[in-house]
Amino acid sequence: MSTELRASNLSFGYRSHGLWRRGRAVTALEEASLSVAAGESTGLVGSSGSGKSTLVRTLLALEKPATGTVEIDGRPVRPGSASSLRWYRRLVQYVPQNPAGSLDPRMTVHELLLEPLKQLHVRGDHRSMVRQALERVDLEPGHLGRRPRDLSGGQNQRVAIARALVTSPRILLADEPVSGLDLPLRNTVLTVLDRLVRRDGLGLLFVSHDLAAVAQLCTRTMVLSAGRIVEQGVTSEVLARPRHSSTRELVASVPRLPASGGTR
Amino acid sequence: MTSALLVRDLTVSFRGSVLVDGVAFGIAAGERVALLGASGSGKSLTASALLGQLPAGMRVEGSMRVSGRDAPLGGQGRAGAGDFAAVYQDPATALNPMVRLGRQLTIPLRKAGLSASAARDKAAVLLISVGITDPGRVLSGYSGELSGGQLQRVCIALALACRSTVLIADEPTTALDVISQAKVLDVLMQGSGTANSMLFITHDLAVAAALCTRALVMHSGRIVEQGPMDRLLAEPEHSYTRQLVGAAHAGANAFALEAGA
Asked: What stretch of H or E contains A37?
């Protein structure tokens, strides 16, 4: 069965906290609608403060939108208790930006991967689920006994992805998963994500302000600006013929390598 | 021509393990040089050693000359006034959140001998030069009221206010989105054109190539390759440089292919 996560007309606002002054009202999302389908990789791009992270938090049912709905295969999803959302957490998982901050430094990789299985009451052979998740991100069984500080940034990010994969979700929401990584490490993580979509048929929402990474990975791209999805379409269309001014600004800001031997 | 900065045999060690190993390089006056390398390669330690900001317990050896004069290195005391200014990755922690930005920006200007009002005017001019359109509001405000990209530009204005010989920028755009990054790179390009030489530390080759004419590549504490940026991009020699250039091209090619650029 092909899974589809769908958000319709999401709006969300909050009041910012000024240090001395009264905060102002901020519209973080305005009438945002999107869908993430299994087997598809969608890039969500936008500058800082455009609402990317709020959108992801709302999709994860961590924030309650002022208006609009989130549903998966027609079943509505709303913020609620951990137990009422277990079914959803098994289907839709999250990959954070900063694995160093999101992985408990005291736990071994094995313990880190077992945790979601326990939390989400997944039945079955946990040992083999952990091994499979590890294989899918190109890590070895030998890594199971290590702790985050013994691993590189790229390896830790793959542990974070394995942790998201261990419950066999259908959709991954990845919030800037490569922006803290060195270039060569970034490519190892992009390779893993690409294979999860193409070979294993996962749906991926890849949140990034790195248009080069989005171009490498995503077939579709959405552009968020001031809480609105101002443009969306096939990645090559969006990048080659940006219609909205925010998209044009993003595309123009990508640092280009001077033409040289390696360019096609 | 005198080099703005000349570093010889810089070695940093901690409890017997060598973290920076015999690093040597020079930066000419007005030159922008990139220091490239993976996390943990020793880039930031090199910068800290130059700035005299190494964590306690680190051992430093080697020598350094700034504008032709011998300058203290690492643990041997702080660099002389006017030798270095620095811009770091996280501008939010670089500025004091409780002190008005105007006051923070005028400190180095007052130190240079300007009167209070002249320093304030000069601070406004500096803010405009880094692309801040409403300097009055920024000067009377606090760091918490600005975005990351704006804050980083304030930090650069502060660094430029010091009129130092060498500006050391340690991953100044890593925490910024691509639009703010482009603005900050623009500002660094113009700011350094005036007098500063620059050591630009990054792991992002495309960003380095946009700004710098020459590059040093660090790997496991050593400089494994250095040369003009064009040559490095076209014919990388060391295996790490080749990896870096390959990865950068993979991204750039995908982007060029999709964007039809």
From this structure: strand A25-37
Query: Using CB atoms, which residue from B97, B174, B245 is nearest to A19?
Result: B97
> Candidates 3.30.70.890, 3.50.50.60, 3.90.550.10, 3.40.50.300; correct CATH number of B3-259?
3.40.50.300
> Would you call A186 and B204 a contact, using CB atoms and an 8 Å cutoff?
no
- The domain spans of chain A are 4-252
Q: Split chain B (261 residues) into runs of 10 and give each run's mean pLDDT.
A: 88 93 94 90 91 87 90 64 84 89 92 90 90 90 86 88 88 84 85 74 90 95 95 94 89 82 55
Q: Does A40 have pLDDT greater than 60?
A: yes
Q: Whole-angstrom Cα distance, residue A176 to residue A52? A: 10
* Residue ranges per structural domain of chain B: 3-259
Q: Do A257 and B249 touch (CB under 8 A)?
A: yes
Task: Mark yes or no for CB contact A254/B247 under 8 Å.
Answer: no
For B34-60, the pLDDT digits (tens) are: 999 988 889 989 999 998 888 888 899
Check residue A230 and give its pLDDT: 96
Q: Which residues, listed in sequence order, are joined to residue B59 by a DSSP beta bridge?
A: B13
CATH architecture of A4-252: 3-Layer(aba) Sandwich (3.40)
From CA A43, how far away is CA A210, in angstroms rounded? 10
- Which among A216, A235, A258 has CB closest to B251? A216
Separation between Cα atoms, residue A162 and residue A130, nearest integer Å: 8
Q: Given an 8 Å threshold on Cβ–Cβ distance, is B230 in contact with A258?
A: yes
Contacts of B253 in chain A (CB under 8 A): 262-264
CB-count exposure of residue B24 (10 Å: 0-12, 13-18, 19+): middle
> What's the mean pLDDT in A187-209?
93
